[in-house]
Amino acid sequence: MIPTLVLVGRPNVGKSTLFNRLTKTRDALVADQPGLTRDRHYGVGRLGSRDYLVVDTAGFDPVAKDGIMHEMARQAEQAIAEADVLLFMVDGRSGLTPHDQEIANRLRRVDRPVFLVVNKGEGANRAVLGAEFHALGLGAPLVISAAHGDGVHPLLDEIFEVL
Ligand code: GDP
Ligand code: MG
């Protein structure tokens, strides 16, 4: 069975950029406008001889009750149900937000491995950046730059360790 990696996180943290890098496609919509990916996007990638499926979700608000935010949350919940591993992305530039906390609260109840991925980490002090997000209680943050590719290969190596 091909393992499924699911990207979750609030809008604009860089999920679609990481999706494109992991699948080497331009399939996911990347935009400055938050929340552009409203449904789930699927792509395949390969590390060495190992294939994996990547699912890109719209940024989601786990407590949204109606409207488009609720539909995004529903899509994200479906993707979470399909996941072998979850990649919870946060934005190292904007820092920890209440919205990140809400998503973290949801992900703490997931019974599969969750990797806390701090994106936009290019040029930053990784230890300092990581420390801020440790407070989410989801383990050691992995600092990457989806746009530049820094830390993406080590992240995949860590994921395949637990699969
Ligand atoms: P999504 O809403 O989570 O899917 O985020 P996107 O992938 O659409 O990216 C949102 C914005 O962040 C875009 O302007 C990207 O170019 C930018 N971005 C994504 N990854 C990085 C990164 O590693 N570093 C920086 N500086 N910007 C990034
Ligand atoms: Mg997106």
UniProtKB/TrEMBL annotation:
Portion of the full-length sequence here: 1 to 163 of 442
Binding site for GTP 1: 9-16, 56-60, 119-122
Transmembrane segments: none
Record family assignment: Belongs to the TRAFAC class TrmE-Era-EngA-EngB-Septin-like GTPase superfamily. EngA (Der) GTPase family.
Biological classification of the source: Bacteria, Pseudomonadati, Pseudomonadota, Betaproteobacteria, Rhodocyclales
Assembly: Associates with the 50S ribosomal subunit.
Role: GTPase that plays an essential role in the late steps of ribosome biogenesis.
Coiled-coil residue windows: none
Protein name as catalogued: GTPase Der
Residue ranges occupied by any EngA-type G domain in the UniProt entry: 3-163
